[in-house]
Each structure stands twice: as C-alpha cells, then as structure tokens.
Amino acid sequence: MNRVAATRPDWSTAASWPARLDFLGFGGDYNPEQWPRSVRSEDIDLMREAGVSVVSVGIFSWALLEPVEGEHDFGWLDEVMDNLHGAGVRVALSTATAAPPAWLTRKHPEILPRLSDGTTLWPGSRRHYSPSSPAYQYHAQRITRVVAERYKNHPALALWHLDNELGAHVSEFYDDDSAAAFRRWLENRYGTIEELNRAWGTAFWSQHYAEFEEILPPRATPTSINPTQRLDFQRFSSWSLLEFYRGLVSVIREVTPGIPATTNLMATTATKSMDYFSWAGDLDVVANDHYLVAADPERHIELAFSADLTRGIAGGNPWILMEHSTSAVNWQPRNRAKTPNEMRRNSLAHVARGADAVMFFQWRQSLSGAEKFHSALVPHAGTDTRMWREVVDLGRAVRSLESVRGSRVDADVAIVFDYEAWWAIELDSHPSNEIAYLDTMRAYHRALWLRGISADIVHPEADLSRYKLVLVCSLYLVTDVAAANIARAAKRGASVLVTYFSGIVDENDHVRPGGYPGAFRELLGVRTEEFYPLLADQSVVLSDGSIGTVWSEHMHLEGAEALVRFTDSPLTDVPALTRKAAGDGHAWYVATALDSEAVGALTDALLTESGVLPAVQAPAGVEVTRRRRDDGTCFLFAVNHTAADATIACEGTELLTGVEAAGTLLVPAGAVVVVQESSLAP
Ligand code: GAL
Fold it and tell me: Would you say 512 and 505 are in contact if contact means Cβ atoms under 8 Å apart?
C-alpha cells in the first residue's frame, strides 16, 4: 500500500490518447478484484476470444483502493488497466463511490441514509450513503480526484462511469443533511415563505409555515401528507442525486476535460424517483441498465419501452446499454434463465432502438457474495457452455454492425412522458388508487410495438414538430407550457390522443378549475363535470362493444364529436371517446381504460388518420425498426420473437450473415436480421 503520488506509473506518453468509444461497444462490468491473478490473466484471453471492446471497472472498489483513510493501493488496478489496454479493451472507469468503505461510515455515521420512518440503513450491502451528506460529498469527490489523477493519462481510459445507478435501492433520503438541503432547495425555488405557503396550499389543516427552518421532509405522518410537499420532495430527491453527480463530474471535467462522463440510468426498471429528462444535460452520453422482468410474459415489449424511453432521454441520440444480463438475475422472486438466442434478441433489440453499445452485468460470474447466482458472460460452468458460445457469437454480431453506429431511430410517433406527472398522479387521496401512470402508456406502446411502429418517449415540453401522432397518457399534472406545446402539435397537423385523468392540475398540484380535463379542455372540445372511477372488479360496456375499466366520467361535448359512448348507468349515452378537428390536425380523448382489443382498434384509427406506417410489414411477433445515418443510409432491424420463420420485404445486405436480400429476406424463428438497405427508404 502506498501513497498515490509516489507510485503512479508514467502513462503520459502512451499511444492512442485521447481514447474514446469510437466503436460499437461490447463488454460489461468487470470486477477483477474478486479474482486471483491467474483468473485475471485468463479473463484477458477470453475477452479477446469474445471480442470484448469495453469494460466498466472499479465500481465497487473503494474499500480496496483506499483500505485506510489516505492510504491507497492501486497496484492491482494499474495491472488490470495495463492488461486491458494490451488486449485492446477500453475502460469505462468508475469513481468507486457507489459503496463507502467501512472506515468512512465508522468515522461519519451521519452519512448513512435514513428512511421516512427514521430507520437507518447500515453498511453491509452497498449504496449506504445520503447524497446530501457534506461528509460523503467531500470524501466521494476526494477519491474521485485521486482515481482521476492516477488514470488521467492511461490509454485504456475511454469513459467515466460515475458512481453507479444513482438512486438505486434508496432514492429518497430523510436524514438531517437531506432535510437541511431540502430547505435550501425550497428557498431557492420559492424565494419567500409566503410563496411556498401559496404553492403548498398550507391554509389547509394548519400547515402554514412562518419560516423555512420549520420545514421537514415528508417523514412518516398520521395521515395523508401535503401533496405539494411530497411532490417537491420528489423533485428535490431527484435533484439531490443529480447534484451529487455534478459534484463528481466537476472533478472529472477539471482533471480529464477530454474524457466523456456518464452514469448508468435505470429507465423503468427499479425506480421512478429520478427525473432523467432533467439529468440528460449533465451526461456526455446517456447510459441505461435494463433487466427483463421474468414474470412479464411480454418482457421483450417492456424492453422496447425502456429502450424507447432511454432514447427519448438521450434526445434521439445513440446511447449506451451499460448493463443487461446474459441470462438469469438473482434478485427477482423466481430468476428465469434466458432461452437459447434470447440474449441475442434482447441485445440486438436494444441496438435496433438506438443503443451503440451492448454491455452486461457482469463479465465473470462471482463465486461469493450476494450476486453469485446472477448470470455473466463467463458462467460458473466455464466456456464449454451454450452461454459462452452465444457470448462469442454476439461479440461477432456486434462487430459486424459497426456501420450502424451513430445512426438514429426513425419514429413518427411521440409518447409524452413526464416524471413529475408520474409522481403526482400516484400520490394518495385521489379519485382512484388504481391508476398506475405507466399502465395506459404501456398499453398504447404495446399496440404500436405489435404494429411495427417505433415511438419516441419524450418530455411534454420537447419539440413535437416532427411527429405525426402524439399520445398523451394520463398526464395528470401539466404545465401551461407543455399543454400549449401539445395543442400546437395538433394545430400543426398531428393527431393527438389524450387519455383520462389528464390536464387536471398545474405544477403545484392545484386543480385547474372550470371542469376537467382542465388544461386540455379547449383542445379536446370536451368538459367533464364529475369523475366516476370504477371499483376494482367493475367494468363498463361501450357503444362499440368494447369494455372500459378503472375509470369513467360524466363528460359533455363542447365542439368534439362522440365516436363511442358509455352504455351503462349512471353514464348511459355519455361520450367515452371523442374527436375534434384542431387546426390542421385532430385531438382525440378517451375517458376510460380500454380493453386491449379496443386500444388496438383506436391505435389503428390514429395511425390511419396520421399516415404513420411501420418500418416494414412484418408478421405478428416480429419486431421491426429502422435506424438512419445522417448520410441517409438505412438499417432495417427485424427481431423474430416467435417460433416460426418469417419473411420481410427488403433489399440490401444482411450485415450479420453477409447475405444479399433482393426483394425478400427470411427471418428465421428466434433470429435477428439487420439489413443495410440498398435503396433509401422513404
Ligand atoms: C444493477 C447494478 C449492478 C448489479 C446488477 C445485477 O442494478 O448496477 O451492480 O447489481 O444490477 O442485476
């Protein structure tokens, strides 16, 4: 163990600086500290065999890099970095801050996170720190600087992987440091306590505050907590994690201004607490982790949803798939192994939706620790396994897709997605607790997926001008700016669908008076006087025979026409689905959760009206997308999720096999094809 400065090797003259990710990446998390040198040396041989081009290193290494405060041991990491470089593998180097070492939390127990009921989360696993702790911020930035200074000239360094999955496991922190930071954040947001009182509606239940110092995070209370306080705490929590990232990235930018930095997001998987749209501007490249939900029979469609959201967060730019699994995970109630070729379909489906790197957790399956039954590229059983053969094949496939890198996914449809609306709609004391923000959105996304239509999932204030169809699902909270943006899309010629319980409140969670759906009333030409939420086992029959669940409402037409009506008492003959001309486009409103067949029929009607076509006609269960380079070169992806061979119409070169497609191409059962198209697609 040595002080840093004394032993740092001189990498300053090494070739290929500055190293970047100038290839379609293939690799994953690499945790060499868990293995003896002999295994690490075999790792290098196997990485060459599999064509691994990038690995994330050092994510959970702090306790080994600095076992005692101020004393560092970089010998093993130097060797790993050098060996990776020798094998041509680039490194996404972590700041090692995702798990504080024991000496640090012993010295500063106030770093430990606290839940809303006061429970302290102790060391023994990982991520046991509060991002607002000044002591943790200080030490995390300090170790980041030490690591950055040491490896700033290392030729393998291509990317900074800051911390890891910020907000995973715990994303809201109720400790005293967080409480103080929350008060500062509120002061900054509102300026005066009067303004906060107005925004939080504190005339209610004697919640008025005389000064900011009286305010607490929404800790456990006897009954419903002030909803705006809750909403602001979610905003603050997302910001506090981002602010922690910003502290680390400021060190990184100072020490290595030429190396891009990112952190791995968890779009849809673990938590809804981080507003990733507000994070994107601080990431040099968006990176996402995705794990299939074993219990979901349509997990490949959920994968598509996550990828489409990641692309939306990335503003349509290519992104990095930083983690997924080769097979089973270890943290679901039943951890299902992937079937033959399923990994390949999963990995390449992410590429089909904009990923420019295919990375996994993790390189070699651990022998000890909580993740020893999590799959990896090198399984416990070794290389004479289907898994290893599929890994080597996938590496080859990724290399053959190099020309796809940098291209963008074609999408004529936008699905509007807002974290703040998600937080707000799922607060308590609402007409119904049955409304899960993602449910309606996933239902319409699924209908699009089944029809071969790609959708960008975008923020409500994003530029919507290029979309022919815009879906606005249960956007309960909406700002005036976003509502005007959506209305503008319709006026410019798009078809806009708004679903129930949208437009209800402003950014302070205050109801927009005069009738629902508040912010969208004029656009839609409807006015609702009362909600009739449905009980858990209740449904309603609509005039076209379809079934509604979850929701119904007493709506009046104010310029719209009714296409479908409720038929059941007490809403007999009340409109359930409406349409209104709006400028050059149309605005549709649906006032219930339609059954999946009806969602499909409505989607068909919207696609016809807006003129949106699939990337190519394909049989059911064959996922199709198109990526397009700036020079117009197009890549048609088809992922066959079925057990039957399929045929698609296309012309060009199939990149995985080199086969020429002249008119049609076979997509074998369970296989993926990627065609570089010879004629420019329209
Ligand atoms: C991720 C995490 C990895 C690993 C993986 C297992 O959430 O970033 O370190 O734990 O899950 O699926």
Answer: yes
